[in-house]
Structures are given as structure tokens and as C-alpha cells.
Design goal:
single chain; about 375 residues; alpha/beta; Urease, subunit C, domain 1; TIM Barrel; 2 domains; 8-stranded mixed β-sheet; 6-stranded parallel β-sheet; 10 helices; about 30% helix; globular
């Protein structure tokens, strides 16, 4: 039995003063308010708020490994690093590659998700709960660092091959709405339970609205790899920012988006639809040098990951994204926390596995200070 106490606790909906969390066998046994004079817990954070562990729906790797390696060793290294940074759940995110390479990676990831015990856990280790397909159905005009030679036209048969290789674990797919066949694919993927996110796109506003009507629910790294906003043609970006029902990702590292743009995004999407992501690649948590993103090399220096002169993911962690966001916007902590807990869980349909703190759940939680800085992380009740 282990107890954790703090100044406050935010469980995903409400704020509790002077909380005590009791943990038994890696799960939350109870959450209550401490009585006056009750002693501090085994782990006490007198100036911090306890909150659900973070959920990253867009991450390619960290700790020197890429998720497309799809090996127990790679996922173990990634998972240990993520647990130490407060991330308790993630979607293993692919990058555009030759189709056979992607299918092999998906098959390996599906096996590891089905058999999480095969991922070595030398200490607290976060394990993937689903897969995000970032590619291959993306725009050549807005592909960013995604290899143009491996992009494919939206095709239901090809999607079904990817879906089957992923063993039903594909939960999110980025899609450029303007491509021929994209709207039909959006409807098909949605019917199979895969959330569609519009992105890597040069779509007009009308093309974007057609994708939303076909079932798209989110936008991939808003502002990045998107048609620029124009007062005559608002395009995909204008539609993302003004559609209240649409979730929208943001990379809040001060590199992908200027702080003033982060504030604009916050005013547009608010605490109900914003989602902070990392888009991190294998260099996250590592020194400067050359690393891999899927099948190609990326050079990392001074916090920037670059390939062929283009930003190639990030080295961001969600705890830093939270601290950056609160600093850039001045948003209240409990509203900021929604962006990497409640909202990603709601968008992906994983609200029963992530994004909240309740008795009976695995004890995956963080302690953060008033500025959103990570103070401590617990995974299955163990300090990470």
C-alpha cells in the first residue's frame, strides 16, 4: 500500500484540495480529501497538483529509437523514457515509408500491443495503446519531411491492408482531404473505428468541410504542413480554427509554432478541443547528433530536428509542452492539463483507459507545479 499527498488534485473534471491517493497493487484504491492533522503520504508534494498521466497521440519515438523498429527493445526504451516524463499512454505513430516496410512495422506493433508483457520493463514503462497512421495518404504539396516518393493516393484497399496489419489497433489516421478518393476513405475508415485527422494538406475550406462531413474529427499538428490562412480562401487552417466541434493538435515547443500563434490557437480551440502533442522522433531525450525517423536520417542540433532542410518532428516531451503552453498563454493549470489528458482520450475513444484519475484505474499520474512544470511521475503506482 502506498499513499501520495499534495496541495491539490485534478482528476479530469474536478479540483480537490489536500488530496490523498491510496495505491494498492499498482491501482488507485481510493481518492479522498485529507482530514485536518492527517499525516503526509509516503510521497508528499506540498506545492503541487496531482493529475492524470499525459496521453500523446502523435509520437514517432524517443530515447534513440523509432516506433517503426517495432521491437520489444525499442518499445521498452521509448516506454521507460516516456514514463519518466509523465506520459502514461501513447499512440505509436508511423511515418510514410515503402508500403512493405510500413506493413511489417504495423504487424510488429500490433503484436506488442496485444502482448504488452513482451516489452521489457526494467522499471516503469509506458506501453502503446494504439497506432496513429501518419501517411501515406498525404499531399505532395504539404508533405513536410514525409518522403514524396512513398506517398500514395487514398485507396480503400490499401487502407484495409494497413488496418489488418495493425490488428485493429489503428486508432487515428492523418489524411489530406483534397486528394482524389480521400472523402470516401474518410468515411470508410470512420466506419471501421479509425479516427480521421486532416493534415499534411493544401485543402480548401470546402474540401476540408467535406472531410469533416465524412467523419474527420481532428487536425494534425495545426499550422504545420497546412495551406496558409488567406482572407479570400480560409483553406484547411481557417476551417480547423473556426469549427468548434473539431479537435486540433499543436506542437508547443516554440519552434514549430511561435508563442503568439499558440495563443491564437488557444483562443480558437479552447480547453474542450485543443490537444498538445510532441511529434517527437528518436532524438527526444538524446544529445545532438544524427538519428532516424522511419527510414531516413535526421540531424538534431539545438532543439531542432531537420532533414533535407525541413523540420522533421521534434525532441519535445509533453511535460515541456505543458510548461511552455502555460507560459505562452497564461491559461489556468486545470484547463491546460485537459489538452494532454481528457481531450486526447476523448478524441481517440480511450477515455476508459487514459485521461482521468478514478478508483480502480492503474495508478498513472503526475505531480505538476503551478507553472505546469513536472515535479514527479508515477506509472502503475511506481515513481518513474
Amino acid at each position: 500500500m502506498r499513499t501520495i499527498t499534495a496541495a491539490k488534485l485534478w482528476d479530469g473534471t474536478t479540483l480537490l484540495d489536500n488530496p490523498v491517493i491510496t495505491i494498492d497493487d499498482g491501482h488507485i484504491a481510493s481518492i479522498a480529501a485529507r482530514a485536518s492533522g492527517e499525516p503526509d503520504g509516503e510521497h508528499h508534494f506540498p506545492a503541487a497538483t496531482l493529475a492524470p498521466a499525459f496521453f500523446d497521440v502523435h509520437i514517432h519515438g524517443s530515447a534513440g529509437h523509432d516506433v517503426m523498429e517495432a521491437t520489444p527493445e525499442a518499445l521498452g526504451a521509448i516506454g521507460r523514457f516516456l514514463a519518466s516524463r509523465g506520459t502514461g499512454s501513447f499512440l505509436a505513430t508511423t511515418v510514410t515509408a515503402p508500403l512493405d516496410m510500413t506493413l511489417r512495422a504495423l504487424d510488429g506493433l500490433a503484436s506488442l500491443i496485444d502482448h504488452p508483457g513482451s516489452i521489457p520493463s526494467n522499471g516503469p514503462t509506458t506501453k502503446p495503446i494504439g497506432i496513429h497512421l501518419e501517411g501515406p495518404f498525404l499531399s505532395h504539396a504539404k508533405c513536410g519531411v514525409q518522403p514524396k516518393e512513398h506517398l500514395l493516393a487514398p485507396d480503400i484497399s490499401t487502407f484495409d491492408k494497413l488496418y489488418e496489419a495493425a490488428g485493429g489497433h489503428a486508432r487515428l489516421m492523418t489524411l489530406a482531404p483534397e486528394l482524389p478518393g480521400a472523402i470516401e476513405l474518410a468515411a470508410h475508415a470512420t466506419a471501421r473505428g479509425v479516427r480521421v485527422s486532416v493534415g499534411h494538406s493544401d485543402a480548401t475550406a470546402a474540401e476540408t468541410r467535406a472531410a469533416l462531413a465524412a467523419g474527420a474529427v481532428s487536425a494534425t499538428h495545426t499550422f504545420n504542413a497546412m495551406r496558409a490562412l488567406d482572407h479570400h480562401e480560409p483553406g484547411i487552417l481557417g476551417t480547423v480554427l473556426t469549427t468548434e466541434s473539431l479537435f486540433a493538435e499543436l506542437i508547443c515547443d516554440g519552434i514549430h509554432t511561435d508563442p503568439a500563434i499558440v495563443d491564437l490557437w488557444w483562443h480558437a480551440k479552447g480547453s474542450e478541443r485543443g490537444i498538445l502533442i510532441t511529434d517527437a522522433m528518436s532524438a527526444a531525450g538524446m544529445p545532438d547528433g544524427e538519428y532516424r525517423l522511419g527510414g531516413f536520417a535526421v540531424q538534431v542540433a539545438n532543439g531542432r530536428a531537420m532533414a533535407r532542410g525541413v523540420l522533421a518532428g521534434s525532441v519535445l516531451t509533453l511535460d515541456c509542452a505543458l510548461a511552455n503552453f502555460t507560459r505562452f498563454t497564461g491559461a489556468p493549470l486545470e484547463q491546460s492539463l485537459r489538452l494532454l489528458t481528457v481531450n486526447p482520450a476523448a478524441m481517440t475513444g480511450f477515455a476508459n483507459q487514459a485521461g482521468s484519475l478514478q478508483a480502480g484505474q492503474p495508478a498513472n499520474l503526475v505531480a505538476v507545479d503551478a507553472q505546469g512544470k513536472l515535479v514527479a511521475s508515477f506509472h502503475n503506482g511506481e515513481p518513474a
